[in-house]
Structure formats: C-alpha cells, structure tokens
C-alpha cells in the first residue's frame, strides 16, 4: 500500500527542491542563502547541486512545474514572495497534480489497483484565504520596490508619512487592507520603508480606499502623497481624473477610524464624480489637518507606477 503523499515526498519534493536550488544558484544565491530560502540544510543543497538526490524526469519536464519554479525563484530572489507564499504556491500545485493529474498518475503507477477506481484526489482547495492574502502582500512589496527605486518619490512624502495599501477582493474593513506598519517617511531624501507589509496596520489610507470602493470605484490600491497644485495638475495632464473632497465634511479626516471605515466626504465626492480608475483624490486641508493627495488604482504596483512616471516627467 502506497499513499499519494509518499509520491509527493519521494518524487515531487526532491525534484522541485533540486530545481529551485539550481534556479536560485543561477540568480546569484550562495549555498547558505539557498538553504535559508528553501528551509533545508547546506549539505542538502550540496547534494542537490551534485546530483546526489534522485529526481523524477516526468515531474521536472512538466511545464507547470517549470513555471512554478520560475515564479517562486524570481519571487524569492526579489523579495516579492515570502516563504509562506512560496510554500502555498507549491502546495497548490501539489493538490492540483494530485487531483486526477500527474501525481495521481504516478500514484496509480505505484498502485495499479487504483486504476479501476478512476483515481480522483481532490483533497485541497487551491483558492485558499492564505494564498489570497499572501498574493496581496506580495503585490504591495512589488509596489514598494517601484517606489524605493523612484528618484524624487521621497520629496512627495507628506509630513504625516505615506503608505501604500492594497485590499483583498472582498474587503470589508481595515483588517482586509495590507500596508506598511509605521508608514513610509522621507529620511534625508530617502524613502524609508520600516517593515514588511501587514494587514490591519493602516487606518488613514485604508479608510480612504475603502470609502472610494464604497462609492463604487473599482480600485484596490492607494497611496497618499503631499498636496501640491502642480502635482494635481501634472497627474491630471497625464490623463488621470482628479476629484476633490471637502475635509470638513469628512468625519475621519485624521487617523481615527470607525467600524465601517466610512469617510462621508470621500464617499460623496467619488460617487458624484464617478471617475474611471485609476484616479486622483485630494483635499486641501482644514484646521489642524494637512492637505493630502491620494492616487488610487487597480492594485499597489499600478499606483506606484503612476507616481514613478510622474517623477520622470
């Protein structure tokens, strides 16, 4: 008797780890860095490099496996993909290949008796919550990398700091929005990102994004910048609709937050303007409130690219 999990352990994992180790080495990783990225020992990495671990030609030749290795290797190399997301991506492919596919066929070869039963192994839902949240965090990381590499972005950071956010597809509150804990600040002309994106750490920008969505805007990403009429003009000239809201009509004009994350001034302005995404939202300040510009778009990288392109002009 042989379980499909044994096929995974004996054939799939050694093959994929060997392929990932080679991919990361090709990307300039040291043996120690490969070991840390894959969560294995350096001696295991050495064995993979010297072909001392048995692998499966059928698995390594599968285009889906090759695509997985390319995506995971690139994500780990750039830092866009966490080890958690890498694990989930591998797990998802394993479950897909177990479900009447490559691994199920390898299992049937080891257990011919299974052929008479058709061998359908649907044991895992690939559309898991963990996968979705990790994809959003990865998207925010990509956007942050764009901003860090954008000359002039630091000069657009307002006194209260910037934050780049992206929400889950069905976001209901700030806990469904990924952002930078502590915000992004201009430190001597350099945009400083203090830590990795997390969910539920932005109330200010998250509430603006959620309020725009409540008004019907098809957006999931947002970034706040300092207010400058020239900035608004430049973004408008680049083809992005600009919408002003009255901060005095907005009961959440600072970092306070209610359960619905509703900001009436934002909801009213966006609903009335009904702008196509991406678009620019701004307020010109009030008593004790700094004027701020917001760029909203389909996701965090889209918003970051808009700012990058503006800084290049």
TrEMBL record:
SUPFAM superfamilies: AraD/HMP-PK domain-like, lambda repressor-like DNA-binding domains. InterPro entries: Aldolase_II/adducin_N_sf, Cro/C1-type_HTH, Lambda_DNA-bd_dom_sf, ThiN. One of its GO terms (molecular function) is DNA binding. It comes from the Archaea. Residues 27-48 form the HTH cro/C1-type domain. PANTHER family: HTH CRO_C1-TYPE DOMAIN-CONTAINING PROTEIN, TRANSCRIPTIONAL REGULATOR PROTEIN-LIKE PROTEIN. This is Helix-turn-helix domain-containing protein. It comes from Haloplanus rallus.
């Amino acid at each position: 008797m042989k379980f499909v999990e044994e096929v995974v352990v004996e054939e799939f994992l050694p093959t994929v780890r060997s392929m990932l180790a080679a991919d990361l080495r090709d990307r300039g990783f040291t043996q120690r860095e490969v070991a840390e990225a894959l969560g294995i020992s350096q001696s295991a990495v050495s064995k993979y490099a010297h072909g001392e671990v048995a692998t499966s030609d059928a698995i390594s030749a599968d285009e889906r496996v090759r695509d997985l290795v390319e995506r995971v290797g690139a994500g780990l190399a750039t830092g866009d993909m966490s080890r958690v997301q890498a694990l989930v991506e591998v797990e998802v492919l394993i479950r897909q290949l177990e479900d009447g596919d490559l691994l199920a066929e390898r299992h049937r070869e080891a257990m011919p008796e299974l052929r008479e039963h058709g061998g359908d192994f649907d044991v895992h839902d690939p559309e898991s919550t963990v996968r979705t949240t990790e994809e959003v965090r990865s998207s925010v990381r990509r956007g942050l990398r764009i901003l860090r590499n954008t000359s002039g972005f630091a000069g657009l950071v307002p006194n209260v700091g910037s934050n780049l956010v992206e929400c889950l597809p069905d976001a209901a509150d700030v806990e469904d929005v990924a952002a930078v804990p502590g915000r992004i600040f201009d430190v001597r002309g350099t945009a400083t990102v203090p830590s990795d994106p997390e969910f539920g750490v932005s109330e200010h920008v998250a509430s603006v994004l959620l309020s725009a969505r409540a008004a019907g805007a098809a957006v999931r990403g947002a970034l706040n910048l300092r207010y400058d009429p020239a900035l608004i003009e430049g973004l408008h000239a680049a083809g992005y609709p600009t919408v002003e809201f009255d901060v005095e009509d907005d009961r959440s004009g600072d970092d306070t937050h209610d359960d619905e994350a509703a900001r009436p001034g934002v909801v009213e302005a966006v609903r009335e303007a009904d702008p196509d995404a991406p678009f620019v939202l701004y307020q010109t300040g009030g008593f004790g409130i700094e004027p701020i510009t917001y760029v909203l778009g389909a996701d965090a990288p889209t918003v970051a690219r808009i700012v990058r392109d503006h800084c290049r002009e």
